[in-house]
């Protein structure tokens, strides 16, 4: 009439892998969602920004990360350029500080 505890217990998984996979599945799902919503778009924006910085040339109007808007007067070297921010004021900045390209300039005639 009474059921012994041995009959009431379920058969144990000898490897214990099923429980582990069920426990780790939400973490894997969260990582996949984070990859597609955060990491992948950030990499694409970073790649586009590096391409934009690489293709800067004299005559382009740019916005720096500090908020200065100016026209590129001279490309000093691979890491620096010179901006004319108005009234003949020229500023020398690092290329990496260029945040946005407002307008492409005309190709320079050599």
From TrEMBL:
Keyword Transmembrane helix: yes
Organism of provenance: Methylobrevis albus
Subcellular location: Cell membrane
Keyword hit for Nucleotide-binding: no
Gene Ontology terms describing biological process: protein transport
InterPro entries, alphabetized: Preprotein_translocase_YajC (IPR003849)
Alphabetical UniProt keywords: Cell membrane, Membrane, Protein transport, Translocation, Transmembrane, Transmembrane helix, Transport
Membrane protein topology class: Single-pass membrane protein
Role this protein plays: The SecYEG-SecDF-YajC-YidC holo-translocon (HTL) protein secretase/insertase is a supercomplex required for protein secretion, insertion of proteins into membranes, and assembly of membrane protein complexes. While the SecYEG complex is essential for assembly of a number of proteins and complexes, the SecDF-YajC-YidC subcomplex facilitates these functions.
Highest taxon of the lineage: Bacteria
GO cellular component assignments: plasma membrane
Segments crossing the lipid bilayer: 20-39
Subunit field text: Part of the SecDF-YidC-YajC translocase complex. The SecDF-YidC-YajC translocase forms a supercomplex with SecYEG, called the holo-translocon (HTL).
Family: Belongs to the YajC family.
Name used for this protein in its record: Sec translocon accessory complex subunit YajC
Pfam families in the cross-refs: YajC
